[in-house]
Protein: peptidylprolyl isomerase
Organism: Nothoprocta pentlandii
Amino acid sequence: AARDEVSIEVLHVPEPCGPRSKKGDLLNAHYDGYLAGDGSRFYCSRTQNEGHPKWFVLGVGQVIKGLDIAMMNMCPGEKRKVTIPPSLAYGQQGYAEGKIPPNATLIFEIELYAVNKGPRSVEAFNQIDKDKDKKLSQLEISEYLKEEFARDGKKRHPSAHDEILTDIFKKNDHDGDGFISAKEYNVYQHDEL
């Protein structure tokens, strides 16, 4: 079973350590990815996306399963080195675009910057749902993204907003009605764990 587990080496933990990341939180992190086989680096968030750390929601499949597991219970400022088996990474297919061969074990060095209440909490849903109709429109989510972006103060390409918005609807608007209902939004209802 060990070959199907993520091995986590904690390199640095700040004091105090909190809040700790949990499923559904919005994380901001830098990470470098290496092939365990030859040690070559296949990804570096510092050299891509104009060097901005990556934002993603933990535990919902926005990153490979191994990273979703490896980044649970981390606090801002923490650094980890994690080894992810192929079964929790790109498996037998590999990932040609990312230069990852089939059945590759991956090593990531991760530095976590921020843990925000994820967009998946009930509080967040109610906050985004300005007209209180129990469903989120593109406009409501668009406004929410603008506020989030303004709050972290990072310069982003104007297209980033639209890309994220499109992505949110592609992944969450299961019935394609142009709204995200409370049920569609609530990731905890279709949680594999």
The radius of gyration is 17 Å.
